[in-house]
Structure formats: structure tokens, C-alpha cells
Amino acid sequence: MIHFVYLVSITHLIYTRYMKGNQMTTDIPALLAEINSTRPILEQVANKWSVLILTVLCSQPARFNAIKRRLDPITHKALTEALRRLERNGLVSRRVIASSPVAVEYAITPLGRTLQDPFVALVSWARQHGEAIEEAQVVYDNRQLADTAV
Questions:
Q1: Which of 22, 61, 97, 112 could, after both became Cys, cross-link 91 (CB 3.0–4.6 A)?
Q2: pLDDT in tens, 100-132
Q3: Percent helix, strand and coil across the chain, each rounded to 5?
Q4: How far is CA 148 from CA 70, 135, 138, 140, 143, in A?
Q5: What is the Cα–Cα distance from 5 to 78, expressed in whole angstroms?
């Protein structure tokens, strides 16, 4: 997922900032510096569980166990770590509900909601091109098998 997001970032930056008419600037160091400056943020936001958790929370707040059920087979530990990371980054809020037993509800923040459109686009892209990816994987795997058989 991270590599895909970097590819999208590179493509977006080239298209929006470095295209001048039909000619692209050759200032590759500036392009790479801008892309590298986004790496820490992308590493926080664009991992597998973060994307899925934020997608779940885009529709409505949810308790920990409800999120865990929706994202099966996520482990308790992985979900806890991802939610803490998202909360630390201001993308998710956490509310303790005084009940017996104590419950915790998570909701997407306004900052987190700004990721909704990119995530919807990413999911749409995955649906549209998933079959082509699977076909490419089969071709690659068959080629690897043929190469090892020789």
C-alpha cells in the first residue's frame, strides 16, 4: 500500500506541479525532495489498517469491538496500535463511555474526513483494476515458475 501511495504521489506531483504545457521540467532533485518530505506523513496514514479503519469510521463512530469485527482478521494488538497512531495524528478521536464494562468509541475527526475522497478514489481504483492486478500476478507467477524450471 505504501508503495502504491508513493507512486500516486509521484504521479500527482509530476502532473500538477511539473507539467508545463507538454514539457516536463527536469528538476528531479526538487521533485524527489518534495516527495521525500511527505514520507513521514504517508507512513502514518497510508498503511493497510489505517486506510481500512478510517474507511469504517467515515460512515459513523464505532466502538473498538465493532471496528474489530468489521476488519476481521485484524488482531487486537494491531487495531490498538493503529487507533493510537491515528489518534496521535489527529485523524481519529477517542471517547470513553462510562458504562459497565467501560466502552470506547472512535470517530473520525474533521482532519481525518479530508482523507475520505482520496480513500474512496483508491477503493474505486482497486475495484476497477483488481482483476487486471490478479491477472498480472498470475502471469508473473507463471513466468517465475517457468524460469525456475529451466
A1: 112
A2: 888 999 999 999 999 988 888 888 898 999 999
A3: 70, 10, 20
A4: 40, 20, 15, 12, 9
A5: 21
DSSP states of 73-134 as a string?
T--HHHHHHHHHHHHHTTSEEEEEE-SSS-EEEEEE-HHHHTTHHHHHHHHHHHHHHHHHHH
> What would the grid cell of residue 38 be?
511527505
- State pTM to two decimals: 0.70
Cβ-based neighbours of 110, under 8 Å, separated by 6 or more: none
Q: Which cell goes with 55?
A: 474507511
SS3 46: coil
Which is nearest to 71 in space by CA: 43, 102, 106, 37? 106
Q: How far apart are CA 9 and CA 36, in angstroms?
A: 10
Q: Are the CB atoms for 90 and 83 separated by under 8 Å?
A: no
- 52: how many CB neighbours lie within 10 A of its CB? 19
Contacts of 57 (CB under 8 A, 6+ apart): 67, 92, 106, 107, 108, 112
